[in-house]
Amino acid sequence: MEYFKDTGNTLKNIVRRLRTKDFSGSSGIAMKNSSYQILTNLTAKIGSLIFTVVLARILMPELFGLYSLALSTIMVFIAFSDFGINQTITRFVSVELGKNNDKKAKAYFLYLGKIKLVLILFSITFLMITARFISENYYQKPLYLALIMGAFYILFSGLFVILKSLFEALNNFKIIFYQEFIFQVIRIILIPGILLLILKFIISDSLVISYIIGGLSLSYLISFVFYFLKIKKSSFLKEKDILLTKKEKKGLKKFIIAISLIILSGVFFNYINTIMLGYFVESEFIGYYTAAFSLISSSSILIIFSSALLPVFSRLKKKELERLYKKTMGIVLAFSTLLFLFFFIFSHLIINILFGESYLASANILRLLSLLLILIPLTSLLTTYFIAVGKPAIISKVLIISTLMNIVLNYLLISKLVVFGQLFGVYGAIIAAIISNIFGVFFLMAYRKK
I need a labelling partner for 134 at 20 to 30 A (CA). Which of 39, 218, 331, 449 fits? Predict the structure, then answer.
């Protein structure tokens, strides 16, 4: 109850500082960043919701499920092209800029950028080699062309995220907001337009899904160009090049290895449900699951401030960090509880209004998934806290165990429940995700108290 009691006073202080435009001190910077992050998240939430609803209604459950399965698979390969480089750029460049050490900040960015490019090429090659096996042998669904098109998705989204991480390190969340708006407008107009054009002709399901992935890739390319034109104005990139010392590279590699385990475990944790469902159930049931999950993921963005808080958390001393963490936790708990109750009570009505009668099977799925609206924000905040204090190993341990638990539970519950109907197999995947998330939050909180 103390969290909720303090939340009222915290919100009053936030309103006062926003009204007077008082962004002084660490709290002020966090507030300014969070304000833009909220705008960005609102744009992302509204844009993603519109995009998902329009796409789901055009494709209907079966094709929508195929698209979701293809994208989830590509996201796993993207995780191998990341290995925590994006978060590492944000943290290390932010720390050096906070010390006014522009040359060192540039050195970190260039060194990490080169590693990122190598990883992108590796992931693309690996996807191209395994695409046919994944499509024909594991899923036994027409996804080969979509996965091949995923190579462009990995390339353009990877280049885009590198520059986004740099803007986060610069505390320039205004530019990130503008970019998000541009990205959402482009994909909402571009991809449905492509679909309405090509669906007039008799083409295969595989081609339809590949065109969607291609449209998303083009959207990321345009966003990358926008960032590139803006980042050229950054003064620290004009500094003379210097090299990192062996000690700095060694420390950096240790951090990357630790955080890469977090990223890989986190991606598998988020997408393992869809990937395993792809083996056990038909694509239309994946469409039902994705429709409900998209609402949860879009809504949870409203109460996740990790990107805005990481640069600030990284520069704070212990007492200041603890104070800001507790205030943020109170706000997160209050809003996440309200969202949970809203989706749990009105799930049937929400699905019917947004997705239509064809997706009514998603109503109970949404009701179960609404529990994640409390668990996901807590996990995000705790993850940001441990990364900021340089303890990513703790997160990696918890995530690895949670991910393994999720995989085992997914297999056991889906395989046992699917015999009662494919929808029950979906329920099994959701129960596995909830149990694994509860485990992760519990142990992260236990570690933080230590």
Answer: 218
